[in-house]
Design a protein that fits this description.
mainly alpha
C-alpha cells in the first residue's frame, strides 16, 4: 500500500504549485456541488463529516511513515490535513443556490487558506505535536477560525441577500 498516495490525497499533494491549496479546494468543490444539486443539509453534513474523518485518519495513521521516508516533519505533499480542515469548515454551512453557494465556498475556502498559512495562536503551537497529530492539529484549529468567520459572514451578508 502506498501511504504517500493516500496522504497526498490521490496525488493532489504532488501538484507542483501550492499543493495545500489544491488539497483544500477538493472539499470546497464537493460542498459546492452538493449544494448546487440540492442535496439535503443532513446528507451534506454526513458527507463532509465522513470526508473530514477519512482525511484526518489518513493523516494521523500514514503521515509518520511519509515523514520518515522523506525526512521532513511536515512534507508539502501531505495534504490530507488540508482536506480534513477544509471539510470541517463547511460542516456547519449550507447554501441554498446561485450566488449564495459561490460566496459561501469563497469565504470558507479563503478563510481556511488564510488561517492555515498565517497560523494564528495556537496553530503554530499545535504544529509541534508529534507525527501526524502535529500535521493535522494546526489545520483543525485553522478550520475552527475559518468556520467562525464563515458563520458570521453568512449570517451578516448572505442573510441580507435572501
Amino acid at each position: 500500500m502506498n501511504k504517500r498516495l493516500f496522504t497526498s490525497y490521490l496525488g493532489l499533494g504532488w501538484l507542483p504549485v501550492a499543493p495545500g491549496t489544491w488539497g483544500s479546494l477538493a472539499p470546497a468543490v464537493v460542498f459546492g456541488l452538493l449544494c448546487y444539486f440540492g442535496v439535503p443539509r443532513f446528507v451534506v453534513w454526513i458527507i463532509l463529516c465522513l470526508l473530514a474523518l477519512d482525511a484526518a485518519t489518513v493523516c494521523v495513521w500514514f503521515s509518520p511513515a511519509v515523514i520518515e521516508e522523506l525526512g521532513d516533519n511536515d512534507p508539502r505533499e501531505v495534504v490530507a490535513d488540508e482536506v480534513a480542515g477544509q471539510a470541517l469548515v463547511f460542516i456547519g454551512a449550507y447554501a441554498a443556490g446561485g450566488w449564495e453557494i459561490l460566496v459561501t465556498m469563497a469565504v470558507g475556502f479563503l478563510g481556511f487558506r488564510l488561517f492555515d498559512i498565517v497560523k494564528p495562536w495556537p496553530c503554530r503551537l499545535l504544529e509541534k505535536l508529534p507525527g501526524g497529530w502535529g500535521i493535522l492539529a494546526d489545520d483543525v484549529m485553522a478550520a475552527v477560525y475559518a468556520a467562525c468567520i464563515l458563520q458570521i459572514c453568512t449570517k451578516l451578508w448572505i442573510g441580507n441577500l435572501v
